[in-house]
Amino acid sequence: MRTLKVGLLIFVLVVGMVFAEEKSQPQMTYDQLKLLLDILTYTQENYVEDVNAQELIYSGARGMLKPLDSYSQFMEPRIYKEMQIETEGQYGGLGIRISIRDNWLTVITPMPGTPAYRIGVLPGDRIIKIEGEPTNDITMEDAIKKLRGKPGEKVVITIAREGTVEPIDYTIIREMIKVPTLNSKMLDAHIGYIRLYDFSSNSAKNLEDTLNELKSKGIDKFILDLRNNPGGLLNVAVDVVKLFIDNNKLIVYTQGRNPGSRKDYTAGEKAPYSDIPMVVLINHGSASGSEIVAGALQDHKRSLIMGTTSFGKASVQSVLPLINDCGLKLTTARYYTPAGRSIHRDEKTGKGGIAPNIEINVSREVEAKLQVQEELTYPPGKEPSPAKKEEVKDVVLDRAVDLLKAYDIFTQHK
Question: Is the Cα dihedral 366, 368, 369, 374 positive or negative?
C-alpha cells in the first residue's frame, strides 16, 4: 500500500511540475495532493469489495487529463510500449491514424498499403463501434487497445460516414503495419509526380533523391501529393520545406503558453529546388507535417495548394517517461505558419487547418474508389500495373496537371 501511495504521489508531482512550467494551472498544493491520497486510502480500506489500487491510480491519472485536449493522455505500460513500437514504424493493427473529435473516435487517415486502406476506410470516418461496442466518449488508449492485436486476427469496426445514411460494418484482418515513404512517376515528359506518405526519418532524403532521379529523366515541374499524409517528425517536415525555400526564411514556429517558449525553424541559405514550378495537393486527411509543408509553401507564395482544407492537427506533444514504465503525453505548444496562422483546429469553433488556394471537393464515394483504385494499380514500392476498367478520374490531380501545363503556356508568351 505504501508503495502505491508513493507511486501516486510521485506521478502527481511530475504532472504538477509539467503544468507549473506552463504557468496556467493553479499551483498544486499539499492539500490538493493529500486529497487524492485520502480518496485512494479510504476507497481501498472501505469499498464494499476488494479493489485494485493500481487500477484506481491509473484511472485517476486518465481522469486528470480528460479536461484537456484529446491528444494529451496518460499511458499505462502496455500503451506506452505500443506507442514506442509505432514510432519505430511497425506494429500489428489496421493501418489507421485516429483522433478524438467531438467525443467520437475519428479516422485522420488510413495508411497506404494497409488493411484499412485496401478495404476503403476514409479520412473523417467516425468509428462508432468496435466489435459491436459503442465508442462514444472512448479514450485514445482504450481505442488503441481494442484496435491493435496479433496479425491475422479479425476485428469488426462500424463506420459512420458523412453522406451515408446507414453505418458501414468492416471486417478487417490485422497485419504487421509498415508504412511506405513515397511513390513517384512521370505524368508526361516534363511533369513529375511524387506522393509522400508520411514524414518518417528518411522521407526528406528519399524525396530529394526521387526529385534528382525525375529531373535526370527530364521533368522541369512537379506535383507533391500530401493527401492523406498524417504527418510524422517535425524536423523531417522542416527538411522537406528546405528543399524548396531558401534565404533563411521562416518555415514554421512553435509557441507554448509562455511567451518565451517560441521556437523558430528556418530554411537554409540555398535550396536545391527553389525554382521548380510545383503544385501541392492536400485534403482532410493531410495533417501535422503535411500542414507545416503546405502552410510554409503557401505563405511564401512558393507553391499553389490545391484540394480541400486539411485536418488541423498541429500541436506539439511532449512525451515524459514516468515510474513503473508508464508515460505521459502532454500538449505543450502549437504550430504556426510563417504568417502567424494557427494550423491547429479549434475543437469548439471547428476553425483551423490549411485552406487550399484552389478548392476542389471530391465526393466520399469517389474518394473511396480512388483509394482502392490506387491500391490496385499503383501499390507502394511497385511500378504501376495496366489501368483497370471503370476507373474513376482523379480530378484534383488532373487539375494540377492542367495548371502546370498552363504555366508553360503563360511563360512562353511573357
Answer: positive
| C-alpha triplet 104, 26, 79: angle, nearest 5° | 40
> Do 209 and 300 belong to one domain?
yes
In a domain, 209, yes or no: yes
Residue 62: give the domain boundaries.
Answer: 2-67
Provide the annotated active-site residues: 288, 299, 313
Match 478487417 to its residue by C-alpha cell. Answer: 172
pLDDT in tens, 23-49: 444 555 677 778 888 888 889 889 899
Q: Are both 250 and 354 inside the same structural domain?
A: yes
Note whether residue 328 is domain-resident. Answer: no
CATH assignment at residue 120: 2.30.42.10
* Most confident segment among 85-94, 151-160, 374-383: 151-160
- Residue 116's closest CA among 195, 181, 175? 175
In angstroms, the CA 12 to CA 33 distance is: 7
Calculate helix-pair angle for 234-242, 289-299, nearest 10 degrees. 30
User: Do residues 270 and 353 touch, judged by C-beta distance below 8 A?
Assistant: no
Q: Of all helices (H) and strands (E), which one includes residue 107?
A: strand 104-110
Which of 250, 236, 227 lies closest to 307, judged by CA?
227
Domain end marker among 153, 178, 203: 178
State the CB neighbour count (10 A cutoff) for residue 43.
Answer: 12
How far apart (Å, rounded) are the C-alpha atoms in residues 391 and 230? 26
Domain count for the chain = 3
Q: Which residues pair with 133 in a beta bridge?
A: 130
Pairing mode, if any, of strands 133-134 and 126-130? antiparallel
pLDDT at 190 over 60: yes
CA-to-CA distance for 102 and 91, rounded, in angstroms?
27
338 and 404 inside one domain? yes
pLDDT tens digits along 71-107: 888 888 877 776 665 555 455 789 888 888 777 899 9
Grid cell digits, residue 323:
515510474
pLDDT tens readout for residues 270-296: 999 999 999 999 999 899 999 999 999
